[in-house]
Design a protein that fits this description.
2-enoyl-CoA Hydratase, Chain A, domain 1; about 35% helix; 8 helices; alpha/beta
């Protein structure tokens, strides 16, 4: 007796394939929800279903935070040299030039001044798409200048971090940026000017070991990876399983390293409120 019978055609030959234009839909990396690009952009690149925060660049953060038309970029054309004549799979100079063309950025940070709810700030935002947001001499110099600008103009300094750490192609020159930026922040603190640090996914290596963790207020986006060495390296070193959620925003806030975890849609309001608070404290 035959219980089941396979249809002659698994897929109807009359069915028509629907054309889906490339680049209009994105799959959430957390819940696998398929989201239209425009819908995601309107929600500040945050998944509507699970609240997963997609990685965005400096351009998107500037549009999110600043009053329209007030942001003025500084040190726009500063470009990395090649002090060590470094070469791996390609020469460092070639890597820099190809990344500039691909990303439309001169380096892994964009700096400037602008107004957030009519309050002027000095601002720096890192960008992961430029060699993993790595911190080289240009990144350190531009952030140091942004801090100096805040010091001279007596305005708050805000830095958004997004980095894989120090840029190995610049060796010790990269590591020196940790001390340079930290020293500038110490002077800012002496002048009693606020520094707000915002950490996004990922914030690791020398960036975490310097300016990103030195904020008067340390903020992070939900579930951002924040730490010095990566979880896999730590696990291999100590030979033990790591706690659930290790090095994620929520874990760090629980341990006292973060003051706030702020959803991206609330970031502008939160920073504006903190600036007002610091202004009232003077």
């Amino acid at each position: 007796m035959v219980w089941f019978k396979r249809s002659k055609h698994n897929i109807s030959p009359d069915s028509k394939k629907l054309d889906m234009p490339d680049g209009q839909w994105i799959k959430c990396e957390s819940c696998s929800e398929i989201i239209h690009n425009k819908q995601l952009e309107l929600n500040h690149w945050v998944c509507l279903k699970c609240n997963y925060h997609f990685r965005i660049g400096s351009k998107e953060y500037i549009n999110l935070l600043f009053d329209k038309g007030t942001f003025r970029e500084t040190d726009k054309k500063m470009k990395s040299g090649d002090p060590l004549k470094f070469e791996d799979t390609k020469k460092y100079n070639e890597r820099i030039n190809s990344t500039i063309k691909k990303s439309d950025l001169m380096d892994a940070v964009k700096t400037g001044t602008g107004k957030i709810k009519n309050q002027k700030v000095s601002f720096a935002c890192m960008d992961f798409k430029f060699i993993g947001g790595s911190m080289g001499s240009v990144v350190g110099e531009k952030i140091a200048r942004a801090i100096d600008r805040g010091y001279k103009e007596k305005i708050p300094v805000i830095v958004i971090s997004q980095s894989g750490g120090a840029r190995m192609m610049e060796g010790a020159f990269s590591l020196m940026q940790m001390a340079k930026t930290s020293a500038r922040l110490a002077r800012l603190a002496e002048a009693k000017l606020p520094f707000i640090s915002v950490m996004t996914d990922p914030t690791t290596g020398g960036v975490t070991a310097s300016y990103s963790m030195l904020g008067d207020i340390n903020i992070a986006e939900p579930n951002a990876l924040i730490g010095f060495a990566g979880p896999r390296v730590i696990k291999q070193t100590i030979g033990k399983d790591l706690p659930k959620g290790f090095q994620r925003s929520e874990f760090l806030q629980e341990k006292g390293f973060l003051d706030f975890i702020v959803d991206r849609k609330d970031l502008r309001d939160k920073i504006a409120l903190l600036i007002e608070y610091f202004a009232d404290e003077k």
